[in-house]
Structures are given as C-alpha cells and as structure tokens.
TrEMBL record:
This is Ionic transporter y4hA. It is found in: Membrane. PANTHER family: SODIUM-POTASSIUM/PROTON ANTIPORTER CHAA (PTHR37958), SODIUM-POTASSIUM_PROTON ANTIPORTER CHAA (PTHR37958:SF1). Residues 34-188, 222-363 form the Sodium/calcium exchanger membrane region domain. The keyword Electron transport does not apply.
C-alpha cells in the first residue's frame, strides 16, 4: 500500500508540471474565459505542490545549504522575469510594481515564512533551534539590501519622487549583486557549516534525513520538473493577474495589493518547503529558505530592473512610504532579537506572524 502511494505521488508530481506548462502555452497571450482561469488556478496550485516535492528530492541529493539555495534562486529568477513582463506591459501604473513585489517578498519571507516555521517547530518540540551565526549574517544582508534599495530612494534629492538618480540606481544594483554573491560564497564554501541544520538536544534527526539519497538521474529529472513547475507557477500567475487586478479594482483596493498577491503566489513553494522542513526539526533549512528568498528577491530584482530601466518608459519608483518603512524597521529589529539567541519559542513565532498580519491589513487598508 505504501509503495502504491509513493508511485502515485511520483506520477502526479511528474505529470502536473508537464500539463501545467501545456496549459500555460495554450493560454499565453490570449483572452481566456472564466472556466480556463479556474483550470489555470488549479494547475497553479498543483505546480506549487510538485515544485516543493522536486525541490526536496534535489535537496536530498545535493545536501544543505545547496538545496534551499537552489529553490530560492530558481523561484526568484522566474519571479524577476514576471516582474519585468508585467512592468513592460503595465504602463505608468506599473512603475511601482517592482517595489511593491520586492517589499511584499521581504515581508512574506521575514515574517510570514519565518513565523510559520517557528510556530510549527515550537508546537512540535517546544523550542525551535537554529544556527545564530549563519542566520544572523543572512538577516544582516537582507537588512542592508532592503535599506539601500527600498528606503534610501525615499530620502535622496537628486531625482524627484521616491526614485534613484541613474548613478544611485547603478550603485544600488552593483551593491545588490556584490552582497548577494558574497553571501552565496559564504553560505556554500567558506562557512557552510553555519547554515546546516542544528538537531535539538536529545532528539535524533528525522528519519528522512538518513534515507538513501536519490540517484543522479532521479535528481536530474527532478531538476527539470522543478524548473518546469516554477515556470508554470509564475506563468500561470501572470495569466491570473488580469483576474487579480479586476478583483482588486472591484474591491476598491490599492494597486499595490496586486504586487502582494503576486508575491504570495510566487513564494508558495518556499513557504510549503519551509514549513515541511520545520516539522522535521530542520529549522535552519526553513530560515535558509526564508532569508535566502528575501535576499535573492532584492539582489536579483534590483539589478535587472536597473538594466531594464534603460528602455522602460516612465519613472522607476523604488522608495517606500512612511508606513512601510516603519514595518521594515520593526521587522529587522524583531528578527534580530529572534535570531541572536539561536533559539525561539511560540512567542517569537507569534510576534512575526502579527507583523505579517499587520502588513496584509495595511496592504488592503493603507
């Protein structure tokens, strides 16, 4: 029975990304009826679950922190492509889409994913244990990138509005690439042990951690299916975006809510993978996914948007408003206090989830 279940799981996780990409190809660039929108949404959900499965297969093969890094980068690369596509086709109304989506990604990862992961781990084992050295370095990088890219444009005076002058934008892009590259080097080579899971005292590793790793061929197949699933997730999210924008307008919500919904959809694979890792007492993997995704979102989006601004028309608005700056500062302070001890309880989880709830509330009712 167990063998049959595993075969069925393997079958659907292979079929869904292929069918989702087919649906994406048939619907791309066309005006689609409501029924197709619903079908696309179903395949979007299936692709998210399939992406998590294949990411875990690859992570088991290559080990940590390479597995979480691969998923974070893969999702973010396609997310950047989606942002560029929506920005180029959205006209002046999309001038702040990159800012809204990146800020939403930071809030979702640093409060939503972190809070859920700590909640799951603390409920199962009372205390969530992780490596403060590696997580602290990741948080410092996220805080620096967020401030340079999303806060400073609000206060600079060389260009009108919350936007960088060309030289300032070029510096922010180069700094983003440099810091992200330095972090990847630190995470994967020089101090890899800082980002490996920490086992709680008196508890063994999850049984899955001792299972035989998949073969190279199986990992390669999962990599191809993972990329297909992620393409489907982001492509179908774009197809769903007109329906999302229509719903936002019908509900009289601010335009920035579109960026929040897109970020929520795109980050679903990381969210599910992080929660599943937390259930296995691998909180460090969850935090690697959370802060790594936030870092990749800024470190890859800002340079790409900076390059795209050479041909994009209209201003590129990156600076946050006062409300969002307060949320960002509070998130950094709270996350620092969470990370420093290397241990967290339900209280820290509740604080992060409260901040995430506040972000969602202010996104729909600024």
């Amino acid at each position: 029975m167990i063998l049959l279940f595993r075969r069925l799981a393997t079958t659907w996780t292979a079929l869904v990304p292929i069918l989702a990409v087919a649906v994406l190809a048939l619907a791309w660039g066309r005006t689609i009826p409501v029924a197709v929108v619903v079908i696309a949404a179903l395949f979007l959900a299936g692709s998210v679950l399939a992406a998590v499965h294949h990411a875990e297969v690859i992570a088991h093969r290559v080990g940590e922190p390479f597995g979480s890094l691969l998923l974070a980068v893969a999702v973010t690369v396609i997310e950047v492509a989606l942002i560029i596509s929506l920005t180029t086709s959205g006209g002046p109304a999309a001038s702040s889409l990159a800012r809204d989506t990146v800020f939403a990604a930071v809030m979702i990862t640093c409060n939503g994913i972190v809070g859920l992961s700590l909640l799951v781990a603390a409920l199962r084992r009372r205390v969530a244990v992780f490596n403060a050295e590696g997580t602290g370095g990741a948080l410092a990088t996220v805080a620096t990138l967020s401030t340079l890219s999303l806060v400073l444009p609000t206060f600079t005076t060389s260009s009108p509005g919350p936007a960088f002058a060309p030289a300032q934008l070029a510096f922010a892009a180069l700094a983003s690439i440099a810091l992200y590259g330095l972090f990847v080097l630190t995470q994967t080579l020089r101090h890899r042990d800082y980002f490996l899971p920490v086992e709680p005292a008196g508890q063994g590793a999850d049984a899955a951690g001792h299972a035989a790793p998949p073969t190279t061929r199986a990992a390669a197949v999962s990599l191809a299916l993972l990329l297909g699933a992620l393409v489907a997730v982001v492509g179908l999210a774009k197809i769903e975006s007109p329906a999302i924008e229509t719903a936002v307008r019908a509900a009289s919500l601010p335009q920035s809510a579109v960026g929040v919904v897109i970020a929520l959809l795109v980050l679903l694979p990381e969210t599910l993978a992080a929660v599943r890792a937390a259930r296995r007492a691998r909180v460090q993997v969850s935090l690697n996914l959370a802060f790594g995704s936030a870092m990749a979102s800024i470190g890859l989006t800002i340079p790409t948007i900076a390059a795209a601004s050479l041909w994009l028309k209209g201003p590129l608005l990156l600076g946050l408003g006062p409300t969002h700056i307060v949320l960002l500062v509070l998130t950094v302070v709270v996350a620092t206090l969470t990370v420093v001890p290397g241990r967290a309880t339900l209280l820290q989880a509740g604080v992060h989830l409260t901040l995430f709830a506040a972000f969602l509330l202010l996104a729909v009712s600024p």
